Amino acid sequence: MKHIAIFASGTGSNARKIIEHFKGHSSIKIHLVVSNKPKAPVLEMAASHGISTLVIERTTFYKTKNILHELSLFQIDFIVLAGFLWLVPTYLVAAFPKKIVNIHPALLPKYGGKGMYGMHVHRAVWAAKEPTSGITIHYVNEQYDEGDVIYQAECPLSGAECPESIAQRVLKLEHEHFSRTIEEILSKKE
Ligand code: GRF
After folding, report:
1. How many whole angstroms from 90 Cα to the centroid of ligand 1?
2. Angle at CA 147, nearest 5°, toward 10 and 100?
3. 175 is catalytic
4. pLDDT tens-digit profile of 16-51?
5. How many CA atoms does the CB half-sphere of 162 hold within 13 Å?
């Protein structure tokens, strides 16, 4: 059985899709949802699915390795970042080599890096009059959005887009592809 921890900071629509996708799965279990926001809706959503939750605090997360103990208590093998806005500390990347994935709402390497999240991304894509946008699912390393790319999906943008319509198209791609891609990665691992 593979145990996944989802890290999320906000709404958690991706987290919800992932939880629903793996409900009753024979070999993959969502065992924990971690957030840096005590009031993040994702925590309530996880609890409503009977999934344990954990709120992390910045100093502890960056100055100690307590999170490694918490993750081992839940036998976590794999970490999924689904709208987690903090940089993953080096010790955590090192403890989970090629076992942390992130989804970014653009076609990396463009429109990535510090500060490029949520509507900031879609506004930049819109301002650049890009003909397409999309998603990138990638392994996480010590830099924002720079790990090896695992999967990308693209959507065409019409001339009449606005940042909000781009966000909608991209979120739809996230919901369509993230869970399946996680399942494919884990079914390839031992
Ligand atoms: C998504 O746009 C994702 O690409 C980014 O954060 C957002 C999460 O949205 N990493 P939600 O909280 O899953 O609805």
Report:
1. 22
2. 55
3. no
4. 999 999 999 999 999 999 999 999 999 999 999 999
5. 1
Asked if residue 77 has its Cβ within 6 Å of ligand 1, the reply is: no
CA 50 → CA 19, 60, 69, 99, distances in Å? Answer: 10, 26, 21, 24
Please give the order of strands across the beta sheet that includes 78-81: 52-55, 28-35, 2-8, 78-81, 100-104, 132-139, 149-156
CATH architecture classification, 2-188: 3-Layer(aba) Sandwich (3.40)
Give the pLDDT confidence of 110-127 residue by residue, as tens digits: 999 989 999 999 999 999
What phi and psi values does residue 139 have, to the nearest 5 degrees? -70, 150
- Full-prediction pTM beyond 0.90? yes
